[in-house]
Give the backbone structure.
Amino acid sequence: MSLPGSFLPSGGPGSPLQAVFWDMDGTIVDTEPYWIQAEKDLVAAHGGTWTDEEAEELVGQALTFSAHRLQQAGVDLSVEAVISTLTDRVARQVRTDVPWRPGARELLEELADSGIPCAMVTMSTAVLARAIASHLPEGTFRFLVTGDMVKRGKPHPEPYQLAFDELAQSVPGLAKSRCIAIEDSYPGYTSARAAGLTALAVPHFIPLPPDPDRIEWTTLAGRTVSDLQALTALSTAAQRSAAQESGAQK
């Protein structure tokens, strides 16, 4: 889903960072509490109960997965109706108050100023993704990949693969090792890694399981384009070293 606005070229052949793919809920905006309350209200309206623990299991998952779980909890609506009801509720709240995550808008602005293209990759619907994007300067995102555009949502690699393929059409020589995906949830992080991207975890609502190899920051506050470039430089160097080692063993 392309968005209007003029775009500068990517960081260029000498830049280690070519593009950044952004998750939305929990990464750019702190909307998880909105989703959880909407889920509780919907289940209650159908005579059931929905605990915080059950809600936390849905963080970062595809909305179709969440809808099926809510049906199991007693919501007597179709998958499409569940998704529409939840999204409309969250979108109404977002239009009143956008709960930005620390450092996200500042980093997005610096990336735009540096000519490094960004895309949003979210499991939310286009309605909600556009509502969030409309609160940012025009041209912040090259395009949006939303949950209603893919058959298999996060943690499957399809959303990030679609985003990469779309951007590759306008960025010559785009390499996955020189792209970063920023995620807060384990399903999202898994999706980005499975797509072959350098994944940066910034956990928020739910801690991620231990992984000594994971790139993880506690916050985006105070982080800069230079920090992201350093990550891609390290990733590219590590891949080059691994390839050389593999070639030496043959």
Notes: Strands lie at 19-22, 118-121, 143-145, 179-183, 198-201, 215-216. The mean pLDDT is 89. The two ends are 44 Å apart (CA to CA). Residues 13 and 194 are 25 Å apart (CA to CA).
